[in-house]
Amino acid sequence: MFFQYQATIQAMSLFTKNQLIKTFLPLALGALGILGFAPFYFYPVSILSIIGLIHVWRDCATAKQAAYTGFMYGLGLFGAGIYWIYISLHIFGGMPGFMAGLSTFLLATFLSLFPAMVGALSKRISAHHKHAFLIAVPVFWALADWVRSWIFTGFPWLTIGYSQLPQSPLAGYVPILGIYGTSFITVLVASLGCGFLTKNLMPACRRGALIALLVIISGGGLLKLIAWSTPNGEPLSVSLLQGNIDQTIKWAPEIAERTLNQYLSMAEQSTARLIVMPETAMPVLSSNMPPEIISRLKQHAINNQGDILVGMVERENGEYFNSVLSFGSSETAVYRKSHLVPFGEFIPFKQLFGWIYRDWLNMPLSDLSRGGIQQQPMPIAGEKVAVNICYEDVFGEEIIRQLPAATLLVNVSNDAWYGDSYAADQHMQFSQARALETGRMMLRATNTGATAIIDTRGHVIAHAPHFVQTTLEGTVRGYTGSTPYVRWGNWPFVTLSLITLLLLWRRNRAAVNK
Question: Nearest 5°: phi and psi at 38?
Answer without folding.
Answer: -60, 145
